[in-house]
Design a protein that fits this description.
The complex is a heterodimer of chains A (about 170) and B (about 160). Chain A has eight helices and no strands. With about 160 residues, chain B is mainly α. Classes of the chains: A mainly alpha (about 170), B mainly alpha (about 160).
Chain lengths: ~170, ~160
């Protein structure tokens, strides 16, 4: 409750600051306001669609299916599925978190969730193509070949550790 | 983005044709979930708007351009962690830096942390997975970025 009050206060303060900046022509505040507007637009262009896909996923994909392929008793191929699933994710981490949470709710294990999130960051197909065209295919290949195995290994270590400790994920 | 839009439209269309009620339920769930997490997104956007002002592109190129040793890898990782540049800005910036003589390993540290480590996305990640998981994932990602940068440095003959 107290935490919520502080957060609301901070947001109000921010709104007042930006509004006053526009009224009195204070440039840093105006710039921040413009940044806010442009990022809000980015989110509006992204989030509704991601969440509709998540909604469809929740309704159509059976829990048993996810449990079997990405759950505690799934085989090592589950990490490959996690990476392939992350490949076409638009919007990077921001979109990956809610999707990952839905996967978790459907019974995917922690290590697979971690792999999915990191893969969405490291090797999304659109970003990788972009990177390769600007920084060279050699750079991109080496980066992927090095980071993907590290991602899988660290995901397994952390995921299994948390599951052994019976770590409970909050409700999203 | 058009890819996302077409996939969403197609999925909705197919779903609607198979089962109208289930599709409506899916949209309702989507709305509920989005509404629930939107305060965290508001926090994210506010943070981004401030950090983007404090750390402009020029500052990034200046800080990465100076020297190329282990310290620059750390600095690049740090800058990559606190900023959140979209790919269409980040990679062209990387190409410019490369021309200016910034090494591949520093670029790798920068782009990998940019994508994997999110100090700004902390409120959202925490809302879904809790503080502990969020800290663990980000710390590990930071480490992975540094290891990857060092190996890239070895591979491109930039160290040793």
């Amino acid at each position: 409750m107290k935490n919520k009050l502080i957060k609301t206060g901070a947001v109000l303060l921010y709104i007042i600051f930006v509004t006053l900046s526009f009224i009195f022509g204070y440039n840093p505040g105006k710039q921040i306001g413009l940044n806010f507007a442009s990022f809000t637009m980015e989110m509006i262009k992204l989030l509704p669609f991601v969440f509709i896909l998540i909604g469809l996923f929740d309704v159509w994909v059976k829990k048993e299916f996810i449990e079997k392929h990405l759950g505690k008793n799934s085989n090592p191929l589950s990490y490959l599925w996690a990476i392939l699933l992350a490949g076409p994710i638009a919007g990077g981490l921001i979109a990956a978190f809610p999707v990952a949470y839905s996967l978790f709710q459907k019974g995917a294990k922690m290590s697979v969730i971690f792999t999915f999130i990191s893969a969405a960051a490291v090797c999304r197909i659109p970003m990788t193509l972009f990177e390769a065209s600007f920084l060279g295919i050699k750079f991109t290949l080496v980066r992927l070949l090095v980071s993907l195995p590290l991602v899988i290994i660290s995901s397994i270590l952390v995921g299994n550790f948390l599951e052994k400790k019976d770590y409970k994920i909050m409700k999203g | 983005m058009y890819f996302l839009y077409s996939i969403t439209a197609l999925a909705l269309l197919i779903s609607f044709n198979i089962n109208k009620n289930k599709t409506i339920k899916a949209i309702k769930m989507a709305y509920k979930k989005l509404a629930k997490i939107s305060p965290a997104f508001l926090g994210l956007i506010i943070l981004i708007s401030i950090v983007l002002y404090l750390v402009p592109e020029e500052l990034i190129s200046e800080s990465l351009g100076n020297n190329n040793n282990f310290f620059s890898i750390l600095l690049a990782s740090f800058i990559g962690s606190i900023t959140l540049l979209p790919g269409p800005i980040a990679y062209p910036l990387g190409a410019v830096l490369l021309k200016e003589g910034v090494t591949y390993m520093v670029l790798s540290a920068f782009t990998t942390t940019l994508m994997m480590v999110g100090i700004l996305t902390f409120p959202i990640e925490k809302a879904y997975f809790g503080t502990k998981v969020t800290i663990a994932r980000n710390a590990l990602s930071f480490l992975i970025a540094i290891i990857a940068a060092i190996i890239i440095g070895l591979f491109f003959g930039e160290i040793l």
